[in-house]
């Protein structure tokens, strides 16, 4: 019975072990040892992987001069934990820690005190890996390195050090995990020197010289070269010639498979047999005497290889001399960009109809897995037909084919002309003309998408055929309203005025056809976006969810409906995993929709996985290189991470792909200011915005901000007083009245009476906003900031702290950091430097604590914004500004 119990206790599982200890621990005084271990323990317990792990998922073991952490889920957990520890220890340079990571078998046991413990090779190897390092090193075993290298965010940080013999003759392959702000890039001293006391011996792989010499004697090398060159030549001929004779693609694939399978056969024959002047003989039976015919055989080999090399060179020249794809990019053969259709209608206000046809066609093409489809936002810059260069567009967008078209609508008839073009050679592949009534044109986009797929030899699955062929509505008028709403919903600036127009048009379409599921799905998305970006009201939340659920009842497999429900789950419930599941369903139905991937990146950002989010946005940009919505998020993500050069590059891309976007120009100015600290950085970019353009008042706000940063308070006051709109989009959570800006300007220039008058006028608007959305953290933060400017200290602190409680950073790393920024500014304005300065110091190291507004916390914000003037005489604040 006891043997059985012992056997049960020794059941092994794979543990992911982080072993760490303090270098030079034994040389420390007892008090120093205790203090350093206490500080190290605090750092470890504060890391996200440790905090998020349950007792079943993590075992923590003290080891005297360090500790071992055994995670159960993934080798990424100890790696993330090690990086967070390394970054945190930058503030404690006196604690010199080395770390080792390994994944291997471990077994849970009980020690003499009946406490939980872990034993096994996983623990032992992790300790030996760690023992090879010096202070600051994060060393990983080969197994962990191979697991991590599968992910893009890890592979650049892994550096193979080689294979070594360590304690007790154990042989280990070790890699160094190092980045700009973590790890030790130097080679560990124990691995750098020759074997000796305390050193690890590097193992050199023996070279089987006799085997390779035998390969050469038997002419296997020559045979392999000839076979490879001949196979490559045959494949090129097949891929170039077979399509002209309409030979099926599976024949080409079969030839490739047979040639690959034939390689080991050819190598084996070359090993066993040899061509000699006496004929083909077994290599072992080859005459040992010197033959006068051998020079001839060598010349034959050389001649064959030379002919093949010339043929390959000619093919390479023919293949690449006529194409200029830029940087050698591999363009998918079944890739397409649909350029904006020309509007030939007599009534030019029908231009929305041409844009709607384009949007609906792209939606249908996006449902086809076999195609690579560039999004609407990437192609809208090519609206000017006269300036189109098909080859250049194909190279820029990375596509093999381009579809151009025109639309003419006359009363109840519509004529659509389309032509498919080979982007590389700028020649027509296929063209068609559709002349129908409006009623008969319902479903035209799905029909056209199928014909394009056929022309590109893209095979549709039965499910895709059904989705593409489905007619979204039988009501022509409802369909026209839907087409008119699509471009408004999908603009790059997420403007409230456009969203409201789209809501009205979708609502009217649904009133005409209550079973129009696609319109309901888009209406749900639009309402969710209004809630998130502008007005966090229950009315928008309830309507968005209701419309998404109604769309799914009508069409359970509708990708757009699952996308909308994912938005609701993401923004309203903050249930990230369930939202990701909805987006995954949407992605299966809409495999070419890059916006879905962008939302996945946004969730990663809120989870605090900033590097993952950035990598996902970058991957989406490669799939959809001209999509301004994705590039805009690259600007915001790089800015949040304080990666100023990368943010500036992304801003330049944003301007290039969306030259009419006011947000692109304004954000460029903010990036310049945050990076370089020039208070006048906004002014040149604002000069590029034409007078009269001021959606949601964002341009007026930027001009006011420019004057305030340069401390031209009188000019800012005059500009805002003369502004036409009564409300502006500046803070989060809705629009702010003009009186709020006039009040801030009055405070800045020392006019207390004017400040009190204007703030009193603004207060009802702010308080009503909180009443409308009592759970909206942003609105409490806005009210707290107003109270702070009014001098109502207790009210301001109460609202600021409530905002942080409603949206904590642990739950939302992006907006949670913003709520803390509000609170820091509130503390500064109400005379609480003891609260403000430590929080500012923390936020200067926090990703996400950056925004294009006055509560933003960067050193250049703190240096130049008048809002932080109450702290300027505090020595701690001055020291913060001097720290690089």
Explain what this protein looks like in three dimensions.
This protein is of the alpha+beta class. Helix content is 55%, strand content 13%. The protein has 38 helices and 19 strands. The strands form 4 sheets. Strands 1, 2, 3, 4, 5, 6, 7, 8 and 9 form a 9-stranded mixed sheet that branches. Strands 12, 13, 14, 15, 16 and 17 form a 6-stranded mixed sheet that branches. A hairpin with a 5-residue loop joins strand 4 and strand 5. Helix 9 runs antiparallel to helix 10. It is flat. Residues 1-10, 205-209, 285-297 and 320-329 have low confidence and may be disordered.
Helix content bin: 40-55%
Q: Span from first to last CA? A: 66 Å
List how many beta strands DSSP finds: 19
How much is the radius of gyration in Å?
A: 33 Å
Number of helices: 38
Unreliable segments (pLDDT under 50, ≥5 consecutive)? 1-10, 205-209, 285-297, 320-329
What would the average pLDDT be, to the nearest integer? 82
What class do helices, strands and sheet pairing give? alpha+beta
Principal-axes geometry comes out as flat
Quote the beta fraction: 5-15%
Looking at how many chains there are and whether they match, the oligomeric state comes to: single chain
Secondary-structure blueprint:
Blueprint: H1 2-9, E1 13-22, H2 30-46, H3 48-52, E2 58-62, E3 66-71, H4 76-88, E4 97-110, E5 116-119, H5 121-131, E6 138-141, H6 142-148, E7 158-165, E8 171-177, H7 189-192, E9 201-202, H8 209-217, H9 220-241, H10 249-272, E10 273-276, E11 279-282, H11 294-321, E12 335-338, E13 342-343, H12 351-365, E14 372-373, H13 376-379, H14 390-397, E15 401-410, E16 413-422, E17 427-437, H15 444-455, H16 462-469, H17 476-489, H18 496-512, H19 517-533, H20 538-554, H21 559-573, H22 576-589, H23 594-606, H24 610-623, H25 628-640, H26 644-657, H27 662-676, H28 682-686, H29 698-709, H30 713-722, E18 727-728, E19 736-737, H31 738-748, H32 752-772, H33 777-790, H34 793-806, H35 815-829, H36 833-843, H37 859-864, H38 875-882
Parallel strand pairs: 4-6, 12-14, 12-15, 13-15
Antiparallel strand pairs: 1-3, 1-4, 2-3, 4-5, 6-8, 7-8, 7-9, 10-11, 15-16, 16-17, 18-19
